[in-house]
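ARCHIVE RECORD
Type: protein–small molecule complex
Small molecule: protoporphyrin IX containing FE
Source of inputs: curated submission
Record status: active
Notes field left blank by submitter.
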Amino acid sequence: MYGMIHRAARDMVRSAGGDELWDRILLQSGLKDDEFVSALAYPDETTFRLIGAVAAEMNLSLEEALGQFGRYWITFAHASSYSPLMKMAGDDLFGFCENLDRMHASIKISLPDVDVPSFRVIETGDASIRIGYLSSRAGLEPFVIGLFEGLLDHFNQTGEVTCVGPIDQGIEFLIQIKG
Ligand code: HEM
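STRUCTURE (tokenized, with ligand):
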């Protein structure tokens, strides 16, 4: 994945445990400083090795680390140069979910090798969204849950996100807005 993902993981770790924790993660993952260039794409294996080391050194399960990273990613992306893209995607969760593919497509202009997932709103209720997720990668469901939890926070809402399970094309998630 692109180096901006690695940079976000580094930021998350440093804000949780400072340079000392980060140095341990670098050592454990074997990643080098030149694997943190925002606009360069690295093999997925490198990204997964990094997240694995984050989990191990922060005493989290892989699922917990991915969930935490998903929530952090929303704050990170919103504070980055991509913030206008997030603003354009919508000012409530319903509209934002409809625009996720358009938002990721705009990223391809600056990061041409990006391999982003696709999201399709299946059904909306008064306070719920059923959404399908289609990716070339496996095992990122906890990350997706964290992302939607981060989006709930971003829109000052509370709620619950669950992975419903496989559907015809991809995996279904349910977002239930509680307040
Ligand atoms: C402006 C905000 C965002 C930017 C700049 C961005 C950018 C990226 C980038 C660079 C990747 C790595 C893919 C690669 O390198 O091949 C990625 C992956 C991903 N993005 Fe986004 N993203 C943003 C917001 C979101 C949001 C709001 C969601 C969903 C709620 C999302 C869902 C995902 C998922 C699930 C992946 C993991 C890859 C996969 O599932 O195959 N992103 N994104």
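CURATOR ANNOTATION: The CA atoms of residues 110 and 141 lie 26 Å apart.
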